[in-house]
Amino acid sequence: MYRNLEDCIVDLERNGHLVRIREEVDPYLEMAAIHLKVYEAGGPALLFENVKGSKYRAASNLFGTIERSKFIFRDTWKAVESVIALRNDPMKALKNPFQHIGNGLAAWKALPAKRSGGGPVTAQEISISDLPLIQSWPMDGGAFVTLPQVYSEDPEKPGIMNSNLGMYRIQLNGNDYELNREIGLHYQIHRGIGIHQDKANKKGEPLKVSCFIGGPPAHTLSAVMPLPEGMSELTFAGMLAGRRFQYSYIDGYCISLDADFVITGEIHAQETKPEGPFGDHLGYYSLVHPFPVMRVKKVYARQNAIFPFTVVGRPPQEDTSFGALIHELTGDAIAKEIPGVREVHAVDAAGVHPLLFAIGSERYTPYQQVKQPAELLTIANRILGTGQLSLAKYLFITAEDKQRLDTHREVEFLTYILERLDLHRDIHFQTNTTIDTLDYSGTGLNSGSKVIFAAYGEKLRDLCTQVPDALKDLRSVMNPRLVMPGVVAVEMEAFRTYPHVQQEMQELSDAIRERGGLETCPMIVVCDDSDFLAKNLANFLWVTFTRSNPSHDIHGVNSYYANKHWACDNVIIDARMKPHHAPPLVPDPTVEKNIERLFAKGASLHGIL
Questions:
Q1: Which residue, 263, 606, 314, is CA-closest to 438?
Q2: What's the per-residue H, E or C state across 451-470?
Q3: Distance of alpha carbon 54 from alpha carbon 218, whole angstroms
Q4: Fewest CB within 10 angstroms: 202, 294, 507, 509, which?
Q5: What stretch of H or E contains 124?
Q6: How far is the C-alpha of 512 from the C-alpha of 340, rounded, in Å?
Q7: What are 484's strand-pairing partners?
Q8: Over 80: is that where the pLDDT of 111 sits?
Q9: Closest residue by Cα to residue 340 from 361, 320, 319
Q10: Percentage of the chain with pLDDT > 70?
């Protein structure tokens, strides 16, 4: 049980899970580049002891592997798992904690503890400019806090039990922000803090916000946990930490006494400033948009404080381990929430939100000899209307019939669907709807489309295991490459305009038809670099499903409409980069060269890679 982040660092080092970096490292790009290399190598947590321009140390990759994360929470993991397993009435354990001591939950561990006055974190008042100003990617708008715990209270029902603790990125400098007086908060109005801001706006008063950084690792995880309705993040934080969340109020602001840093301030109605760009989890920059600006009141730091950070980018990254950790704790919560669902997998390699694989049930018409999707379509619409899953663009769904399926075995799962997909019946579009704010493949911010591929029944086709002759030596396409059974990637000239694409796709369709069709290849992906896309499964999933908007970028060989239903003989997905897309994240080659010194013989990270 850790009282603070320092306790965790010491424990990790003692058990061989952490390495100290003694050399001076630049928070501009270098720290992030080092983190990325160590994470990719499956390496240890890192403690940067000499951050250029700041007297404070910084730590990263604490949650870099699921094994290390479970090690950190080894004393409380089973107890928390057993409490969350009470899904039918998750509040039962917290309302009557003494009845559940056998589960390892005692009342004093779960409920926040209010103290009078200050604590370790209020040891000194500092400025934003004193913090490690870490910029991860070359085109980022400035330095960001990437592991914040942003705290706000319901203006209509003040108090810690009606609070929200969320992980909303914080921009510390750059753009139009007045250094040390303003910071940017990136959140949507429908998120917890956004609801609080809306209530404060209606009351005509600013929203008081506290940004906690560091503290026991349980506090960081609690800020991203999808908790059951009515369970406070701070109650969960105490439960996972095995120690009550310690807090007090100063100047009307909640202070996490065990945090390493706390930034307090106010958000005023209609007060925004340009925020971003920011290298995000889809593997591209989220661009500049107006988001709430926070007027900084005070910045606190404990003695010898440590600044935790992570690096967000094309998956897998450290937040992938976060997701795996959450899934282990909560189980498949969606399967419990939606009747008929056995499994839903938000595919990490595709950036999580763009692509879902799901297994449902098919019980509507057991008396019919011909098996086809029916209940699956009901389930699919429920999935696309549930929480964060509603941000998805692509949903592939089936039901088990004669063989066991696993959505995490991506090639096998997609192969099963493509073998059974009736291309004239089983493709269903939803247009002019919402997608992820960070996804720029659509028609505007938060705006795009969705498609459901719902397949069930007997196998309809054998899938090609090499590039079909019909796709070789075509005038309009180049370099065909087999991606997986039934999927071929081809190159075309760079995207110009959507009217021009219609002409390109018609020519491709005509050429394939003239060669007798492509029965064994239900999916063709048009891209800029087919060698890259076909190199591995991760590249295929990332390029195809992050660079396409179903309504605009799905085409078909011999496509047609029948009673407003779209059908085709082969699906063509145009996954080329387009002018409205955000640029992908590319490391700075000079920085990559510079950090080699830290991995050389005698340096802190020698032998890690």
A1: 314
A2: EEEEECCCCCCCCCCCCCHH
A3: 26
A4: 202
A5: strand 124-126
A6: 39
A7: 487
A8: yes
A9: 361
A10: 92
At 526-559, the pLDDT tens digits run 999 999 999 999 999 999 999 999 999 999 999 9
Q: At CA 177, angle to CA 175 and CA 183, rounded to 5?
A: 115
Other CB atoms within 10 Å distance of the CB of residue 260:
26
Which of 396, 316, 410 minimizes the C-alpha distance to 354? Answer: 396
Mean pLDDT, to the nearest integer, of 142-146?
98
Q: Would you mind telling me the total number of residues written for the chain in this entry?
A: 609
Sign of the C-alpha dihedral computed for residues 27, 29, 30 and 33 taken in this order? positive
Contact 455, 405 (CB under 8 A): no
- Ramachandran angles phi, psi of 73, nearest 5°: -105, 25
3-state DSSP assignment of residue 300:
strand
| pLDDT number for residue 332 | 64
- Give me the half-sphere count of Cα atoms (radius 13 Å) on the Cβ side of residue 84: 25
Whether the CB-CB separation of 443 and 549 falls below 8 Å is answered with yes
Token pair in block for residue 40: 């990719």
Dump pLDDT digits (tens) for 218-273.
999 999 887 765 668 888 888 888 889 999 999 999 999 999 999 999 999 999 99
Tell me the per-residue pLDDT of 414-436, one tens digit each, with 9 for 90 and over: 999 999 999 999 999 999 998 88
Cα separation of 481 and 494, whole Å? 18
Q: Which amino acid is at 139?
A: M
296 in helix, strand or coil?
Answer: strand
Long-range CB contact pairs, 383-386, < 8 A, 24+: 383/334, 383/338, 383/341, 383/344, 383/356, 383/358, 384/430, 384/450, 384/452, 386/334, 386/337, 386/338
Closest CA to 240 of 311, 153, 326: 326
| Alpha-helix residue ranges (DSSP H) falling in 465-588 | 498-514, 530-535, 537-546, 550-553
Nearest to 186 by CA among 254, 280, 59: 280
Report yes or no: 314 and 137 within 8 Å, Cβ to Cβ: no
d(CA 303, CA 122): 9
